[in-house]
Amino acid sequence: MLYFKFVVIYFILFSFIFLISKYFNWVDEPNKRKIHKFPIYNTSGLALYLFYAVIISQYEFNHNIELIIATGSFVCLGGFIDDRKNIRPITKLIIIFIPSIYLLNNGITISDIGKYEYIGLINLGKFSIPFLVLAIGLLINATNYIDGVDGLLLGLFITSLVYYLCLVDSIEVQNLLKLLLIPVVINFIFNIIPHKTSIKFFSGDCGSLFIGFFMSFLTISLYKEFNIHPVYLIWPLWYPVYDFLYVSINRLVKNRSLFTPDKTHLHQIIFYRLNQNHILTTFIFLVINIIIILISYYL
After folding, report:
1. With 232 labelled, which of 24, 39, 246, 295 sits at a CA distance of 20 to 30 A?
2. In this model, does residue 90 exceed pLDDT 90?
């Protein structure tokens, strides 16, 4: 019954943001590099963040995760502005790095990346902050990269939260993650409905940048607070990282700018091979993601 109340609350918030988006015409316009062919509202990521903000303002679950969400407001705002104005990549990086440095300086950081059987503890030492800044920047950009097929980013976010929910033994954090799943599941449904449907809703950069930011620091926090080994934590992130590295290396090899969008992402290649079927493409990647997570966990 408690979760039903929050579902209702989010539907009200979701509807409110949708109506505002309709009034101000906050849409993602189609162009030659985008898959959709009709203007689609792209502020469901804003609705998701506002729900998260309501949760942490009304309840206390875990200080670090709540601080991550609160600080993520800067990333969410930056993504919202980017959706409206198309800000420069360097400006976007600054918007990401400032709140990241703030969290790192406020204790959400790590000094090592785990202990391993043959090589022992890998200590980061003085390179801790540079390593984490680069890793966080990579993951945030990587999540933004995979937001190109309907439902893919949100689907991977759902599987990640469910997986972490199973790893954590804290009841408070489990309850928080369950609440955080509510808007993601609802957004996922409205993200994968057909393009011609008037209620289709994209996350936008507001959502994709915040999800990348949140996942980066959630992973750090789960290792720092609950001593969950990085070997377990990294597997939900395998595809964003793989896609980012593949596309970036491919652009460098072909002497292209790293910041120039293209359609060389693996999910886009498969999408076109499947006659531009969003649902089937997303379903295939989610099944592969779940299989890889399960195999890696048990190995």
Report:
1. 246
2. no
Amino acid, res. 253: V
Confidence of residue 34 (pLDDT cuts 50, 70, 90): low
Mean pLDDT of the chain: 88
Give yes or no for a contact between 53 and 12, defined as CB atoms under 8 angstroms apart: no
DSSP string for residues in the chain:
-HHHHHHHHHHHHHHHHHHHHHHHT-EE---TT-S--S-EE--HHHHHHHHHHHHHHH--S-HHHHHHHHHHHHHHHHHHHHHHH---HHHHHHHHHHHHHHHHHTT---SEEEEETTTEEEE-GGGHHHHHHHHHHHHHHHHHHTTTSTTHHHHHHHHHHHHHHHH---HHHHHHHHHHHHHHHHHHHHHHS-TT-TT-B--HHHHHHHHHHHHHHHHHHHHHHH---HHHHSGGGHHHHHHHHHHHHHHHHTT--TTS--S-SHHHHHHHHTTS-HHHHHHHHHHHHHHHHHHHHH-
Examine the pLDDT at 299 and tell me if it is beyond 80. Answer: no
pLDDT, one tens digit per residue, over 143-184 is 888 877 888 999 999 999 999 999 998 999 999 999 999 999
Structure-token match 């505002």, residue found: 20
**Exposed e or buried b per residue across 2-36, where buried means at least 16 C-beta atoms within 10 angstroms of its C-beta:** eeeebeeebeebbeebbeebeeeebbbeeeeeeeb
